Amino acid sequence: MKKRMTFSLIAGVLLSAVALYLAFRNVPFTEFVQYIKSINFLWTVPVMAIAFLSYVFRVYRWAYILSSIRKITFWEAFHPLMIGFMINCVLPGRVGEFARPAILQKKDNIPFSAGLATIVVERVFDVIFLVGLFAAVSSVVIINPDTEITFGNHHLNSETLDALSGGLMKLGILLIAGIIVLSVDKTRAISSRIIMRIPSLFSFNSSAREKIMDKVCRSLVNFMENLASGFALIKNFRKVSVCVIFSFIVWILMACSYYVLTFGCPGIDLSLTEITLVMLIVIIFISLPSVPGFWGLWEAGGVFALSLFGIPLNDAAGFTLVNHFIQVVPVIIIGFISAVVIGINIIQVSYGETPDSE
Predict the structure, then answer these.
(1) 107-156 confidence digits (pLDDT tens)
(2) 156 membership: H or E segment, kind and range
(3) Phi and psi, residue 142, nearest 5°
(4) What would the DSSP string read from start to end of 191-209?
(5) Greatest distance between any 2 Cα atoms in the chain
(6) What is the DSSP letter of 217?
């Protein structure tokens, strides 16, 4: 397991280095360094405070979603959430999303699949809200449709942005459809019957058929039932409304953290609405298969988004890199502290087996 994590770290560092090189290879180094020196880093203090507050509301939202399964305290939700985000920042593949339910299973005896379902619900709220926010903001913000930057062998332009946002919308629709199918008792019952009949379609002997039904089919049906319990919240309009409000607060705070940083960054003269669009474009870019901490993809998205408003390449690169650093590093520090506080082995929850409790 340790060898696997070591390999992931090495691969992640290499991927991050390549992605950063591709994002910044056209940025003049001397001018870039001069811009970094011109930034008033005192503004990073309120930026980090606002960003941390957004995570606090993430915790409240997740705990509220989890209440459909079992009520947990703020700190019981805080530590797994911060550890999960921290792991996403240091390991590739977003394995932190699976670490959260693994910690819940270990610490609170909540079935892994049920905990995972609550994270899927959380992501559905994020996707729906962000797609709606993108549509609203892009309808009032004037951008230059002819802007194009090069990232590796790819040319990023308005068509790229349309394709990425369209992909995000399709993902949201797919997640909603999956949740609906699993949440409706009749469709879930039909799915369970189909799964249990699969072994009879093959010419297995009775002993092999029973083993397949027990080890595979029943386990899969149990997994579906646990997922459905995690999706129970969507049947309650009041709870859905509360989660929408939490999502609004989370993302408005994140947009404000971007906006406050502009006060200390020369040349980044954008309104809150414009910087919100920048944030949304960065989110679209980092929704792609990611390297640890989204290094490179974040920078490519940020430089591209700021270029849409005529921000010079040096200024855009400097603002994006500093913003990325102060958004990610505190999460890593807090996540490690949380792991120490609750005594969690990061390697184990990142790559350990997480079978559902019976």
Answers:
(1) 888 888 888 888 888 888 888 888 888 888 888 887 666 666 665 555 66
(2) strand 154-156
(3) -95, 120
(4) HHHHHHHGGGGS---HHHH
(5) 75
(6) I
What phi and psi values does residue 289 have, to the nearest 5 degrees?
Answer: -50, 125
- Which tokens hold the place of 322? 């500093």
Query: Which residue has tokens 């474009």?
Result: 281
Contact (Cβ atoms closer than 8 angstroms) between residue 95 and residue 284: no
What gap in Å lies between CA 283 and CA 302, rounded to an integer?
A: 9
* Residue 304 neighbours by CB under 8 Å, 6+ apart: 147, 149, 151, 156, 160, 161, 281, 285
- Amino acid identity, residue 292? P
Q: State the pLDDT at residue 235.
A: 73
- DSSP for residue 95: T
Q: Which phi and psi (to 5°) does residue 150 adopt?
A: -100, 130
Find where tokens 């930057």 sit.
149
The tally of CA atoms less than 13 A away on the side-chain side of residue 140 is 11
Count Cβ atoms within 10 A of the Cβ of residue 320 and give its class: 0-12 exposed, 13-18 middle, 19 or more buried: buried
Cβ atoms of residues 312 and 267 within 8 Å: yes
Total residue count of the chain as it appears in this document: 358
DSSP 3-state of 189:
helix
Higher confidence at residue 171 or residue 43? 43
Alpha-helical regions (H) of the chain:
2-24, 29-38, 44-66, 74-90, 96-108, 112-138, 158-183, 185-197, 206-212, 218-230, 237-262, 272-286, 297-307, 313-342, 346-351
Q: Is the pLDDT at 223 greater than 90, yes or no?
A: no
pTM of structure: 0.81
What are 290's two structure tokens? Answer: 């990611």
